[in-house]
Amino acid sequence: MTVRLAVWSGPRNISTALMRAWENRPDTIVVDEPLYAHYLHVTGLDHPGREEVIAAGETDWRVVVDRLLGPVPPGVAVFYQKHMTHHLLSGIDRDWIGKLTNVLLIRDPREVVASYVRSRATVTPDDIGLPQQVRLYEELAASGEPPPVIDAGDFLRNPEGYLRALCAMVGVEFTDRMLSWPPGPRDSDGVWAPYWYAAVWRSTGFEPYRERTVTLAGAAAEVAEACRPHYERLHAVRLRV
Prior knowledge:
Elements: E1 3-9, H1 15-23, E2 28-32, H2 36-43, H3 50-56, H4 61-69, E3 78-84, E4 101-106, H5 109-116, H6 125-128, H7 130-143, E5 149-151, H8 152-157, H9 159-170, H10 193-196, H11 198-202, H12 218-235
């Protein structure tokens, strides 16, 4: 029985590093932001590499969902799905999400915004994904068990503890292979990787947690402040190990 582990994050989090950890398992396959092409196609947003992403991806969300729920190769215990919550546009039916094993990955919005504006000139609360994460949390909680919420800062203070908790949740044995990986790109990386994944390509494991001094001004500061209540809502129910 294959577990379809969907980790729902916003941008500029540790989501790609977490995908690396799971991909380093021999019993796991991964998919990188499968709804991104649909998101860019529908919204018309000008992200770095926009045309490449659309050309390389699938713009019909129904086809994407069929693949996410479809067959996997023999011997695969975990189908790890790295998702961005802001990719869940209003036109996408959401019933299929309940068929996945879902986890929310959050990060302090000031840190997210500070990182985000280094790659894009503008940012809005919806770009950060926290409002959408709260909506998804409430929907999943209303239909059954609320999904675990992991804060990136907590995770980086104790990667092994959180990985062990996730492994226990999906019913697989933890392995030390999840704590380190070879540097460089992967075939599984989205075509947008050259614009966003420089730090992950240099990495060989999770970066130790460190306090960050973040200075924001103007619209960036307003966006971070607007996202603060959503972050606090999820931070209050986060998983602690």
